[in-house]
Amino acid sequence: MSTSMPEVIAAVPPAVDACWNRIGVKGDKTCRHLEQHIHCRNCPIYSAAGRAVLDVRSPEESHKSWSSQLEVAPSGIDTRTHSVMTFRLGAEYFGLPVRSCKEVVEARFIHSLPHHPHAAVLGVANVRGVLLICISLSMVLRLPPGGGAQETREGSGSAAARLLVIESVTGPVAIPVDEVCGVSRYHPHDLKPVPTTLAKTGVSHSQGVLVLAQRSIGVLDVDRLSQTITRTLA
Asked: Are 55 and 89 members of one domain?
């Protein structure tokens, strides 16, 4: 709900003369300044009154009331929980902290970078007018063949394929994924150790495994992943 400036100024502070309500555009329009300024909002008297309202000090009781409300944690929300963006690479599901995810965009053409020494660097893609390095997360995590996104210069052929833009030490990078599943919340107690059977498939980048909606989701350590990406780009 919006409140017009004249209504606000007419209410507080009492010392302000709300002349616009008496002789201005809200009143009988007899103000001698209207011919020059056309509307009260163009008049310096109106602007000065607005500044006077903004300069009014809030009552001490108001500060105390707001402070007491802001100090109370919202009910029903466990502040110890964490949020992850979950996504799929082939048949495997992973999660990254939401704080590290900048945006999700549709899959697009990836322009190759000739002679780059690391195969995990797929090339660059245009995201909102900015060329971002595209990284093969399946190669970084050493997933088995067929366990990652179908990463080609045209991107994955799946209609659900997306580019997940994440923050790294060197800046934002794009990761082709087969599907973005959304944001999930979990409590640290729900995080289970990575099975030893996955010891050769990126366990060094994992914080643990979550079971959500009957899916096993590998929660990635964004700091370790960022360090690996930096070495990949070097």
From this structure: no
Sign of the CA dihedral 57, 62, 64, 69?
A: negative
Phi, psi torsion values for 230, nearest 5 degrees: -60, -45
Helix (H) or strand (E) holding 73: none
pLDDT for 212:
87
Q: Are residues 141 and 26 in the same domain?
A: no
Q: Which domain holds residue 52?
A: 5-59
E strand spans, the chain: 82-89, 92-97, 101-106, 121-127, 130-135, 162-168, 171-177, 179-186, 206-212, 215-220
Q: What is the pTM of this model?
A: 0.61
What is the per-residue pLDDT across 30-66, written as a single tens digit (0 to 9) for each?
A: 998 888 888 888 888 888 887 777 776 666 666 676 6
Q: What pLDDT sits at residue 197?
A: 53
Please answer whether residues 174 and 156 qualify as being in contact, where contact means their C-beta atoms are separated by less than 8 angstroms: no
d(CA 38, CA 174): 53
Cβ burial 34-51 (10 Å sphere, 16+ → b, else e): beebeebeebeebeebbe
Total number of domains in the chain: 2
Mark whether 163 and 113 lie in a shared domain: yes
Q: Which residues of the chain have pLDDT under 70?
A: 1-15, 56-63, 65-66, 69-79, 145-157, 196-204
User: 215 has which bridge partners?
Assistant: 212
